[in-house]
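Need a sequence for this fold. Nothing fancy.
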């Protein structure tokens, strides 16, 4: 016999197993049940606080394990049961620690198992990223609350829940834009402090609802505590006893109770937000987000062992769905990679595909969550980034690998491996890593946001001072050469022209008088005065004519908020509007500062430009103009995220007042201008957005994916941090 009570791996392991004498553990409790027309038996393991469900045929086999019959004798006694079926069932019972081999120390086995469980809990508490802390027994508190809170699960309250929910959904539908604006400042100022307080209150209410529902139906709630996930406290209660409930809808009610109450809170909160102002409105919106969005994303997610998972398992009628599915996936992966023998598949045929699909999805999800939590902890706490990465790797990667090593390659291995398969699998994995980081290359191009602009832009300035009296054009309007654009009004200048005109006429009369009286000396002197007045009048008339601003050439007018100039006073030389020739356009590309060197090294390359709604066309980077200085200014607002563009921005505050004064780009960008031919330019419109694709030095695909992932995460955290710091 091998350690653990399983037969040695002899030449015929099946024959060795048939001679084994087994006995069920005395502590197990069995309860027959019937659900959805099928009968089964619920097995409770009170030592480990676990529940299992087995079919009637499996129970018939288990009931014969009295410690006196061998597996072969059980096969003969049952008669109509296949030998392979009995072998698979008995092996599963032993592997699940529900039965043991006679002759082994069963009590020692159970004590060892409990000790190992306690050891695992202790090790889990050392994980700074995720660990659980038991606090107290909430039974007395819940028993005192049940008489007052059980009405929440009544039909009358459900009707109220539905009515309030419909009103809340109508409010959400009619206030979508307002909700978007409110969510933009959800972490601003000191709101995050209130959010933490509300979060804790909500989670206490959530878990309290689970506990009340469980006690209402007669279940036990022996434990309450806190789960610390990425330094975020999340209360929990132990309602495992609900699996004793014969009615599955009672179990579903217990699982859904927390979400049920939180969603009701979110309904009320959104109604309060709609009809209140100032601080109450802000707190109500924060409460709505936490009680709805976070509840749906986390508690309702069936791939995590939270409320949604247990509801799904009961709806499907597959108890222990998670361990069944993940165990099957893990066993098949080990068989594929290591060549270990496949363990008996005891998943009933009617449940197999559901459990297999769920197990595959949950397996991948667990890997993604583990990696994400480790990376998130390292980014949130940069000074301890390496420490958290190492801790996460130890608990979620190295320890599982060590357990697999003990089971497959260690001295006490119970699942021998196929060494040829191990070599082949290792070679495949190593080859994949080499290909990813050494052979496969990342994208050969870098993309940058682009926008169509007019190339020959002429700034039209005033040549005289005055008030804007008339504006005859609008932004985007096509005008002809000489067309009146804007008329100014300057009464002082007009009066000066009138006065000078009178003086010129008077001087002309005086010259004639002197000439008629023969006073030639005075006539010459007056003629000189007249010439000066004429020059002054000419200058003033030119200034007066400049009060009418005409188009210097045919083109398109564009100027943001042009109508706001109406009635304003402008000085000589001020900008009134911009005029551009209609068919001369260019592409303005905003290049990430990290890509500038590669762009400069490839100045003669062809750039591919993709504008929405237009065929892809090429431009020449060699002829472009690149601004050598990077800037975070939002010179092209339509490219910014808050205007529906591609560039991420962050709010900036006025140093004096501390109030938000605008936005700036999250990362500095260089500006490059790409020329386009008239054949393409005529079909483009100023302001159209798109992408420019520029060749860049290639890197490995692995390096590219790593850098892109890190950049994405850092940007998201920087945005969240910036929003939290805004007042």
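Here you go.
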């Amino acid at each position: 016999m091998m350690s653990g009570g399983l037969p040695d791996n002899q030449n015929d392991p099946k024959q060795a197993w048939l001679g084994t004498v087994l006995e069920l553990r005395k502590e197990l409790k069995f309860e027959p049940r019937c659900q959805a027309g099928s009968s089964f038996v619920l097995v409770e393991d009170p030592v480990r606080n676990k529940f299992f469900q087995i079919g009637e045929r499996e129970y018939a086999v288990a009931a014969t394990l009295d410690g006196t019959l061998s597996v072969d004798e059980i096969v003969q006694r049952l008669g109509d049961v296949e030998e392979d079926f009995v072998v698979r069932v008995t092996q599963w019972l032993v592997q699940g620690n529900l039965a043991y081999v006679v002759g082994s120390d069963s009590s020692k086995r159970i004590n060892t198992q409990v000790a190992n469980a306690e050891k695992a809990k202790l090790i889990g508490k050392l994980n700074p990223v995720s660990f659980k802390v038991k606090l107290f027994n909430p039974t007395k508190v819940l028993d005192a609350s049940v008489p007052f809170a059980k009405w929440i699960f009544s039909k009358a309250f459900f009707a109220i829940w539905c009515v309030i929910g419909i009103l809340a959904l109508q409010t959400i539908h009619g206030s979508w834009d307002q909700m978007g604006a409110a969510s933009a400042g959800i972490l601003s100022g000191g709101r995050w402090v209130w959010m933490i307080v509300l979060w804790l209150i909500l989670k206490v209410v959530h878990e309290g609802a689970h506990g009340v529902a469980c006690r209402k139906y007669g279940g036990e709630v022996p434990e309450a505590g806190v789960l610390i996930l990425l330094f975020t406290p999340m209360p929990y209660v132990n309602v495992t006893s609900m699996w004793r409930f014969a009615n599955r809808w009672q179990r579903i009610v217990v699982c859904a109770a927390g979400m049920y109450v939180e969603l009701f809170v979110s309904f009320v909160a959104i109604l309060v937000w709609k009809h209140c102002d100032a601080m109450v409105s802000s707190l109500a919106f924060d409460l709505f987000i936490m009680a709805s969005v976070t509840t749906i994303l986390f508690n309702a997610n069936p791939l995590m062992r939270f409320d949604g998972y247990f509801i799904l398992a009961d709806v499907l009628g597959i108890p222990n769905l998670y361990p069944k599915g993940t165990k099957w996936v893990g066993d098949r992966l080990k068989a594929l990679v290591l060549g270990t023998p496949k363990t008996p598949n005891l998943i009933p045929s009617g449940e197999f595909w559901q459990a297999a699909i769920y197990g595959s999805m949950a397996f991948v999800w667990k890997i993604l969550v583990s990696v994400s939590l480790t990376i998130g902890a390292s980014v949130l706490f940069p000074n301890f980034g390496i420490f958290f990465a190492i801790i996460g790797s130890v608990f979620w990667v190295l320890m599982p690998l060590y357990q697999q090593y003990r089971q497959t390659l260690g001295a006490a291995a119970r699942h021998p491996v196929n060494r040829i398969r191990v070599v082949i699998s290792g070679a495949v994995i190593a080859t994949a890593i080499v290909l990813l980081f050494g052979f496969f290359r990342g994208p050969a191009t870098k993309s940058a946001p682009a926008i169509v602009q007019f190339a020959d832009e002429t700034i039209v300035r005033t040549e005289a001072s005055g008030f804007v009296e008339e504006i005859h054009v609008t932004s985007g309007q096509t005008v002809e050469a000489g067309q009146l654009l804007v008329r100014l009004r300057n009464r002082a200048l007009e009066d000066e022209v009138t006065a000078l005109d009178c003086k010129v006429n008077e001087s002309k009369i005086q010259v004639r008088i002197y000439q008629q009286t023969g006073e030639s000396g005075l006539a010459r002197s007056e003629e000189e005065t007249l010439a000066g007045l004429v020059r002054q009048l000419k200058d003033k008339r030119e200034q007066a004519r400049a009060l009418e601003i005409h188009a210097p050439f045919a083109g398109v007018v564009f100027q943001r908020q042009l109508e706001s100039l109406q009635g304003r006073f402008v000085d000589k030389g001020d900008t009134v509007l911009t005029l551009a020739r209609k068919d001369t356009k260019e592409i303005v590309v905003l290049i990430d500062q990290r890509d500038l060197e590669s762009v400069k090294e490839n100045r003669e390359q062809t750039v591919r430009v993709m504008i929405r709604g237009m065929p892809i066309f090429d431009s020449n980077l060699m002829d472009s103009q690149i601004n050598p200085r990077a800037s975070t200014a939002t010179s092209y607002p339509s490219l910014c995220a808050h205007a529906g563009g591609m560039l991420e921005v962050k709010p900036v505050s006025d140093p004096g007042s501390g109030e938000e004064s605008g936005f700036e780009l999250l990362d500095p960008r260089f500006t490059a201008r790409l020329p386009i031919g008239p054949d393409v330019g005529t079909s483009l419109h100023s302001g159209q957005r798109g992408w420019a694709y520029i060749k860049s030095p290639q890197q490995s695909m692995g390096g590219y994916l790593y850098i892109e992932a890190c950049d994405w995460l850092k940007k998201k955290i920087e945005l969240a941090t910036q929003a939290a710091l805004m007042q």
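For context: The first helix runs from residue 13 to 18.
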